[in-house]
Design brief:
Chain lengths: 252, 259
């Protein structure tokens, strides 16, 4: 698929002696909602961070519309990052800024919009995640679920074409996790984005994704529709989706 | 023996890594200065938070630095039979050339260098720096540059106060404890005062400030591994910047004061 929107080619990445990604290759088309699943520590988040050069690979390429992300720097990199929004695992809200300042920071610092436009956009985005009334609160005053929603509002602040979700439901109670999943589905449709979610929450993966990819031992183990994943006989994938400690996958 | 060599090797590699990292950060800081106008508000905020808020601590240490200098000088004068009218002279020289710049910088490294390393380190391990980058905001321009500029300007600013307060501390001790009149003390100080000493002290202070800011930011950005990593970054930043202050101070002494 030479014309895939996002194309990851033979990506290798290690930290010290430990190799995390051992030749990951995959293509993602425009408008797809992909979930990348796998055990904790299997390199899902590492893979996601390569898409906006938060990490640089040891070898391999990450292409977005044919442009190699790993070779970008300066303004070209800023431009790429402005096309992508990311929700971080720990929400990564800036402690010293209010909710409104968090959501509007990118608009102020990189888009250089005027205050009135920033305020209007911040309200609109926070309304989209159902938090239009907490503009002046500090992140420390928010619950885990609210922090994720503010993180979501921040990720969509500049109308990105691609949304990256790093463990969007980790650490949340099942009801709040479902709320976040619904919100992700709704945002993906409403904003017409290409989305990639990294998760080990199978309920979440089946709900938000139109395609599921599993990473195992640094490589793609399976790549298919949610139905194909549910019905696969691959013992590694079966063990993971059934959540069993007995099987070919060894818990480290 | 092997363990010893390994340790030396590891420390050597670490030294080269930190030195190289500091130079790279210095280069990126200098490049980021062309965007300083975009960060004017952030710079003002850091000037206040890092500098002005350090003033009470600098005032307290300076009083006692001046006081103990006067006391110890008087004790030595008595010992060698030197006239006490030179007390203002001795205290003034010691404070303006060495004590105010060096001690203010070391206290500043403890308060501000550690604070910067802890703040940026926490931001690093909680992915806030990744979040900044993901939004296309350069962390050097947004976080490091305002803090380093604040350190470069605020250490000399604090040293001006430290000079004044320490001389006052010395004066108080001289009048109350040593029985030297304020007039004698101040005349001694005025006779010895040279503008070049004062300016050299401020130049030194700016270099110390640059070291503190660079090391604090470098250690913060390099933090990894949660609370323990942040703690290590904080401690290391104080240790490295304190050592650098003393090394630079010695180099300044050799360059500026020919024996």
């Amino acid at each position: 698929m030479a014309d895939a929107f996002i194309s990851i080619r033979d990506l290798f990445k290690g930290f010290g002696a430990q190799e995390v990604l051992s030749g990951v290759s995959l293509d993602i088309n425009k408008g797809e909602s992909v979930a990348i699943i796998g055990q904790s520590g299997c390199g899902k988040s590492v893979l996601l961070k390569h898409l906006i050069q938060l990490l640089e690979p040891d070898s391999g390429q990450v292409l977005i519309e044919g442009e190699d992300v790993t070779a970008l720097h300066g303004r070209a990199l800023v431009k790429l990052r402005s096309r992508v929004g990311m929700l971080f695992q720990s929400s990564a809200l800036f402690d010293s800024l209010t909710v409104a300042e968090n959501v509007g920071l990118g608009l102020k610092e990189t888009e250089h919009l005027d205050d009135a436009t920033i305020e209007r956009t911040v309200r609109e985005k926070l309304d989209m995640v159902g938090l239009g009334d907490i503009l002046e609160k500090m992140p420390s005053q928010l619950s885990g679920g609210m922090r994720k929603r503010v993180g979501l509002a921040r990720a969509i602040a500049n109308n990105p074409e691609v949304l990256l979700y790093d463990e969007p439901t980790t650490g949340l109670d099942p009801i709040t996790a479902d709320l976040i999943d619904n919100m992700i589905v709704e945002l993906n449709q409403k904003l017409n984005v290409t989305s990639i979610a990294v998760t080990h929450d199978m309920k979440s993966a089946f709900k938000i994704a139109s395609r599921i990819i599993m990473l195992y031992q640094g490589k793609v183990e399976i790549d298919g529709s949610p139905e194909e994943i549910k019905n696969t006989t691959n013992p590694v994938v079966r063990q993971f989706i059934e959540g069993s400690s007995i099987g070919p996958v060894q818990v480290q | 023996m092997q363990f010893g060599l390994e340790t030396i090797g590891r420390r050597g590699v670490n030294f080269v890594r930190i030195t190289g990292g500091l130079f790279v950060l210095l280069g990126r800081f200098i490049v980021s200065l062309k965007h300083a106008h975009k960060s004017f508000g952030l710079i003002l905020e850091q000037l206040y938070v890092l500098g002005v808020k350090s003033l009470p601590l600098i005032v307290i240490i300076s009083i006692f630095v001046g006081a103990v200098s006067a006391w110890q000088a008087a004790y030595q004068f008595k010992f060698i039979g030197a006239p006490l009218r030179l007390l203002g002279h001795a205290v003034g020289k010691a404070v303006v050339i060495e004590l105010a710049p060096v001690l203010s910088a070391i206290v500043f490294a403890g308060r501000v260098g550690a604070g910067v390393a802890a703040e940026l380190g926490t931001m690093k391990v909680t992915e806030q720096i990744d979040a900044l980058e993901s939004m296309g905001i350069n962390p050097i321009r947004y976080l490091a540059m305002p803090r380093i500029i604040a350190c470069v300007f605020m250490v000399p600013f604090l040293v001006v106060f430290a000079n004044f307060i320490a001389i006052m501390g010395g004066l108080i001790v001289s009048v109350i404890g040593v029985d030297v009149s304020s007039e004698t003390f101040l005349n001694g100080f005025k006779d010895s005062f040279q503008l070049k000493d004062f300016v050299n002290g401020l130049v030194k202070a700016a270099v110390f400030g640059l070291s503190i800011g660079l090391v604090g930011c470098y250690e913060g950005f390099a933090a990894s591994g949660g609370a323990q990593g942040v703690g290590k970054a904080t401690t290391t930043s104080v240790v490295i910047s304190s050592v650098l202050i003393l090394i630079f101070n010695f180099l300044f002494a050799v360059i500026l004061f020919r024996v």
